[in-house]
């Protein structure tokens, strides 16, 4: 396989694709191009009756995702006995409205970090529109490309202090003022950082949920406190027992967010400085998989045992990325938090 193409699966004209739809799309592509027949997955080392089994492969691709290990709070007195939701991030804005609609007597929300909320733009696609898209594929292609480039254009307001940046800030403030009339509640949920400094959350029912009368002692607690995004999910060791966690302890950086010195033939998907909050990570994955495929083809065609990035190449790429985002405030964003700092 030397090429992938986009497979259209739905007749709708955009909106929000839910997790099952994204999984279905990826599985469909895997089946269509025979990926399942050719793939080799890492297998966790198992131990049964003192018998340990391991599988060794020539190339390793770590697709463990940065948002996979939950970050549970440990310093809140009474947290084990407290019915409440702790957190107001991307997880909380999905579960809180659903819990509130389950006729619970009271629902407490404990806020740690203030966030800006962007309303959803979903709507029902009419049958007439579906027929139009089915009959004229060029219309579907135009709508899709318009949606894609409108998301990508947001990067310009992230990086440069253009008028678009201040327009976006004014729009989220206007949405907040329109949704919450209570001045004191509005003050409590107004973020203190610039819009787009952190990942913006998309929801049309978060603000209304916070104003429900049944939204305080409790029996159940939902901990929506985020993820250990700065810690790699698996212990990985390279040349001479070098640990990836130790190499990333001061600052996380990798060439093209994928490869590290001392770790030949290891590729990390969605590695340091490749995450985004304005569009789909599927785009990032497709670009990274293309690079991995080309790197492996070069290795095999030239009868090379391994491929490994030089440390200078890693630093150079990281500095180039950091040079583009110097206008963004990094004090609030998790992408540049703790051990994922800017290259000096």
Offer a concise description of the structure.
Helices cover about 35% and strands about 5% of the residues.
Features:
single chain, 344 residues, mainly alpha, FAD/NAD(P)-binding domain, 3-stranded parallel sheet, two-stranded antiparallel ribbon, 37% helix, 7% strand, globular, FAD-bind_Monooxygenase_sf
Descriptive overview:
With 344 residues, this protein is mainly α. Among the domains are: 118 residues, FAD/NAD(P)-binding domain (3-Layer(bba) Sandwich), CATH 3.50.50; 103 residues, no CATH class. Helices cover 37% and strands 7% of the residues. It contains 12 helices and 9 strands. The strands form 4 sheets. Strands 5-4-8 form a 3-stranded parallel β-sheet, with no helix packed on it. Strand 4, helix 3 and strand 5 form a beta-alpha-beta unit. Helix 4 crosses helix 5. The relative contact order is 0.14. Belongs to the FAD-binding monooxygenase family.
């Amino acid at each position: 396989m030397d090429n992938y193409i986009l497979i259209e699966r739905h007749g709708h004209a955009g909106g929000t694709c839910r997790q099952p739809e994204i999984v279905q799309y990826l599985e469909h592509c895997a089946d269509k191009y025979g990926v399942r027949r050719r793939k080799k997955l890492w297998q966790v080392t198992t131990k049964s009756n003192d018998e340990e089994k391991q599988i060794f492969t020539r190339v390793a691709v770590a697709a463990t995702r940065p948002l996979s290990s939950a970050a549970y709070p440990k310093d809140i007195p009474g947290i084990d006995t407290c019915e409440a939701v702790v957190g107001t991030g991307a997880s909380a804005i999905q579960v809180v409205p659903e819990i509130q609609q389950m006729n619970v007597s009271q629902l407490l929300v404990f806020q740690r970090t203030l966030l800006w909320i962007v309303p959803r733009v979903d709507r029902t696609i009419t049958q007439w529109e579906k027929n139009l898209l089915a009959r004229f594929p060029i219309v579907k292609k135009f709508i899709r490309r318009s949606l894609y480039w409108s998301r990508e254009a947001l990067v310009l307001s992230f990086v440069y202090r253009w008028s678009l940046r201040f327009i976006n800030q004014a729009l989220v403030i206007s949405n907040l003022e329109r949704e919450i009339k209570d001045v004191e509640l509005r003050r409590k949920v107004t973020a203190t950082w610039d819009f787009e400094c952190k990942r913006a959350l998309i929801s049309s029912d978060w603000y209304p949920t916070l104003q429900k009368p049944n939204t305080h002692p409790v029996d159940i607690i939902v901990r929506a406190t985020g993820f250990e995004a700065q810690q790699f999910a698996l212990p990985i060791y390279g040349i001479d027992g070098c640990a990836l966690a130790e190499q990333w302890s001061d600052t996380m950086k990798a060439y093209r967010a994928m490869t590290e010195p001392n770790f030949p033939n290891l590729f990390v998907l969605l590695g340091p400085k490749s995450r985004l909050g304005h569009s789909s990570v599927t785009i990032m994955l497709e670009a990274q998989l293309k690079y991995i495929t080309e790197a492996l083809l070069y290795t095999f065609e030239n009868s090379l045992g391994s491929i490994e990035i030089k440390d200078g190449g890693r630093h150079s790429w990281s500095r180039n990325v950091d040079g583009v985002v110097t206008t963004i405030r990094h004090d609030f964003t998790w992408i540049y938090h703790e051990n994922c700092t800017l290259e000096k």
